[in-house]
Design goal:
358 residues; alpha/beta; TIM Barrel; 8-stranded parallel barrel; two-stranded antiparallel ribbon; globular
């Protein structure tokens, strides 16, 4: 497979790429390829670094999502990590696709799991320019270049396939591409449920794990039993007054790396930077890097004692109205989801340890 040699954009800072030099020394194993490592409680006083830019399905703002074109563009824009989604074809190939159905991205009114790879490989995206659906192995081969070994990968393991099968096939796919740097230092499997966490620990024992979700209660229950767990939480759950602030404080004190998804507005990006998150999943990694740099410069000037001129948020009235609707939808949706969950599974504090086999 032909590889395009791409050097990361100059916007990527040495402080956020462990393989680059810092203070004249090469830091190779401080954290897994930029994946923020768990910190001890007394490490919270360390100088804060800007959150890492995690490209949501690649450079989704400009290119068809979850395609090699979008992934390459994200790398060229300076993203520290690639976020992508996993599904299984009918014949067990791990493909990079968010939806269980093909309709939105590929125009075919059927499901991914209904097709063998030979059929899926012929599809092209509805969004221009038309692109084929990639396998996980293609992304691994692309990133398996010396100049790209500092970039890490966030794998969102979808719940539409049998959990044991998709996690086992993911492990086999990772093993099939010998990494120039071990994949367990670069890949962060993301699990929605305790069952997925347990299976990932079985099939991917060397890999750090993350919980991706929107319930701070469920995340707390998981983190209590998994001290090295990273947490990738919906922006609205973190920005919720009182509840979100308390969760962020508790997670930081416990040393869990914390990411937010999916953040595309400048004022929300700025909020993530100022709240000291470890990473931000965004459709526009280039814009996020610009915002993070601007906020860092403002804070530097402020720390030096100079007056800082803060830019107005510039959120138009129509956007503000949409956000009121968005927050209302979020709160109502959470109430519905929580009640359904409680009815089916019971309290997370009892269900999670049971699923983990604790």
């Amino acid at each position: 497979m032909a590889r395009k040699n791409v050097k990361p954009a100059a916007t990527m800072s040495n402080e956020q790429t462990p393989l680059l030099k810092r203070d004249g020394h090469v830091v190779e194993n401080e954290t897994p390829a930029g994946i923020p490592a768990p910190r001890s409680r007394d490490a919270t006083s360390e100088p804060r670094r800007p959150p890492q830019a995690i490209a949501h399905r690649g450079y989704k703002a400009l290119f068809p999502e979850n395609t090699m074109l979008a992934f390459r563009a994200a790398v060229e824009a300076g993203a520290h990590a690639i976020e992508t989604d996993l599904h299984l074809s009918k014949d067990g190939v791990v493909v990079l696709m968010h939806d269980p159905k093909l309709k939105r991205c590929y125009g075919d009114d059927s499901k991914v799991k209904d097709h063998d790879w030979s059929s899926l490989s012929k599809l092209r995206t509805v969004r221009e320019p038309p692109q084929p659906m990639p396998q996980l192995v293609e992304l691994l081969e692309y990133l398996n270049q010396p100049e790209l070994q500092h970039i890490w990968i966030m794998l969102d393991i979808k719940r539409d396939d049998d959990p044991a099968t998709i996690i086992r096939r993911t492990a086999e796919t990772l093993d099939s591409v010998p990494g120039i740097r071990p994949w367990h230092e670069r890949v962060l499997p993301c699990c929605w449920t305790a069952e997925h966490v347990k299976l990932s620990k079985e099939f991917l024992p060397k890999y750090p794990l993350a919980h991706v979700g929107f319930s701070t209660t469920y995340a707390r229950a998981l983190a209590k039993h998994e001290p090295s767990l990273s947490i990738s939480m919906l922006y609205h759950s973190l920005a919720l007054p009182v509840v979100g602030a308390r969760f962020i404080r508790e997670v930081k004190e416990a040393g869990h790396p914390l990411h937010s998804w999916t953040v595309n507005d400048e004022d929300r990006m700025e909020w993530c930077v100022r709240n000291g998150l470890n990473g931000v999943v965004t459709d526009d990694p280039k814009l996020f890097l610009e915002v993070a740099k601007r906020v860092a410069e403002e804070e530097k000037v402020k720390n030096e004692g100079a007056a800082v001129s803060r830019r107005p948020s510039g959120v138009p009235l129509s956007a503000r109205a949409w956000r009121v609707f968005e927050w209302t939808r979020y709160i109502l949706g959470m109430l519905i989801v929580v009640n359904i969950y409680l009815f089916k599974h019971g309290l997370p504090w009892t269900q999670v340890p049971k699923a983990l086999g604790k």
